[in-house]
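Long-time lurker. I teach an intro course on protein structure, and each term I like to show students one example going from raw sequence to a predicted 3D structure in token notation. This year I'd like something fresh instead of my usual example. Would anyone be willing to generate the tokens for the chain below so I can use it in lecture? Attribution to the forum is fine with me.
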Amino acid sequence: MAKKRDIAKAEETAIQSVEQIENLILSIRGKQVILDRDLARLYGVETKRLNEQVRRNIERFPEDFMFKLTKEEFESLRSQFATSNDFLRSQFVTLENEDLDMRSQNATTYAQNMSPQIATTSPQRRPLSALPYAFTENGIAMLSSVLRSPMAIATNIHIMRAFNAMRHFIGSQAQVFQRLEVMERNQLALNASHAELSAQVAENNKKLEEVFRRLDEGDATPKEAIFYNGQFFEARVILEKIIKTAKTHVIVIDAYVDAATFEMLDVRAKGVKADIYSGKNLSNVQKMHNESSGLEPIDTHIWKNASHDRWLIIDDTVYHCGHSLKDMGQKLCAIAQLGVDADDILKKIR
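-- Reply from a regular --
Happy to contribute to a lecture. Here you go:
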């Protein structure tokens, strides 16, 4: 019973909090460890005394419980914290004589205020000839059977809690990293989609530039053109270019006319008349369009004799259209200039 009271009292007055002990935990060889010198400070003993007790019970400390740092590992620890030397010197007194300082009030204050930077000063102070030992969680648990003082047992309890807290932290961070990985994959997919869309836009712009280049070369009015599936915009450009060449009159002969056909005729120059011949009454569309266009009114007519094909007459020039004007380019079709008399065509439908 007395021993339990001693342990409880030691635990209440333990030097380090769980949070402070977490700062002493290092990752070496893929394992979470605490160095022997830092453990000695926690237990309130000299490093050499702690290691003497371990050597006397070495059979209890296999390699997965305790291992000695290599020269390369020791140098790596020293270099990791070399940049914090100025800060450390301004905040703490260097422990020149470990035996004396561990018994002094300054050493106690040093241990009570230990931080992540302080925890790593051991490798910087230690000569290469005395490479430190690193204790894993299992090795630290085994120390409680070697160092049997109430202070050592109470400190071990705090250390075990610190390791548990560290595992919980690492587990929570793993979930965060998984979420970040999912977000990164989504972002990469979005970037790929954006790149594909940009490439498609660039290709369309290239096609348009080619269309305009051809229109600007020599005679800008094409005599014939073929449009493939989906080339609606290219067909619209060609048709409007042809309509703009009209000097006096534009005539459309088409069984399938809607508002889009009227809008297409709005590219004609001012003073140029326009007539549409079709098999249905277009008076409503005609009225709405003429009221808002500001150009010469478009006249509509119901033909007497139906036409199977579609025709576009610019002044006296006749174009044969393989599709309705409003649908040119949606499917494979063509437009071609014919050397026939426009009046011969008009006589057949009026």
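Some talking points for your students: Residues 1-15, 83-124 have pLDDT under 50 and may be disordered. The CA atoms of residues 286 and 292 lie 10 Å apart.
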